[in-house]
Amino acid sequence: MATVWTVPLDILPRWLDSAEVQAFLSSNDQPNASADPKIRLAQFADVTKSLQRHVGETYTSVQAASTALFDGIGDGLGVPVGLKLAALRLVVTPVHLTRPSPQPLPDTVTAELGRYVFALLDPRSRRVFHVGSGTGNRVFGHVWAALEENEKRQVLTDPETDSAEVRETVISRIRDIYDSGHEVEHYVVAHDIEDSGSAADRVNVLVAGFGLLESGDRPTLTNLLGTVDEKAVRIEDLALQYSAERVPTLPTPCLLLEVKHAGERRASPESIYAAAREDWPAGTAVRGTADLPVIVFADNIVRAVYRAKSWDIASRSADTPLWRFTGDVDADLEAQFVNKRVTPDRVGLKRWPAHGWAPHLTHARPGR
Question: Domain containing 74: what range?
């Protein structure tokens, strides 16, 4: 087990809640601390700003962490020992296991992706640190190089296009991420692009438009929005979507609900159920169907299946009542449908409605 010092994303609330920090601010007899509360408050503010500036950074020794966080602050007075210790205890992180490197994508997935633009995100800071384009498994190329996964690199079918300097900087960042006990997150910003020229144009737009610097300077992009019509999607989600088996024949009647939260990486069964129970425009036919199967999906992948036992009025919108169902997980239907691909043509639609409500009560085109 290794030990590193990483400033986490939630450092501010943890710092403010620290009993050691509160004792420092309220006590006059802290070691190496001023008796003047105004000076202590100013020192606290300096360390707070420093921690916020260094969010997402990892240090391999306590000396390196101390130097980065405390040197040059405190208006020449330095930082009291008690305040230093309080900060360092909040950022120390044991690393038990190195995260595994990603597995190559199936051929069926790479065929669907075509040429794509990808972004690599540092989970410690939620910042994109590199964007690029390619085909096949190019999205994993830098990680495999950083982790010396030479066997996996054999599946790369397109040439490396980054300069040696950029490649070196990216690989160094990736090793730092893995050494800190995290793993790189891979996103596809756009895919099935016609040619390499248009892919390069999109990369340049991202780099210029968001201030991303391929030289490795700290980037400014903290969200993952692409163009107006596109959004970045985790490569794992695309792989699931394009490799997933199509759902079998849908039960009739049933209700399909698009719940975007269900596709999030950290969604739990409880949170998916809560999100699925938001207010819906359930008509009489839906509410009158006993034990109606409710199929919840996100990104065209089924995530959960319930049986609606009852409906309760939740709110009114433009004089139209909205309803919320109460139900139970249907284990049998989940075994048949979860993690399988459902597309709007299965219920007679060209696209899913924007509101996410798609009843399938008969074999005709769905309505309320």
Answer: 2-95
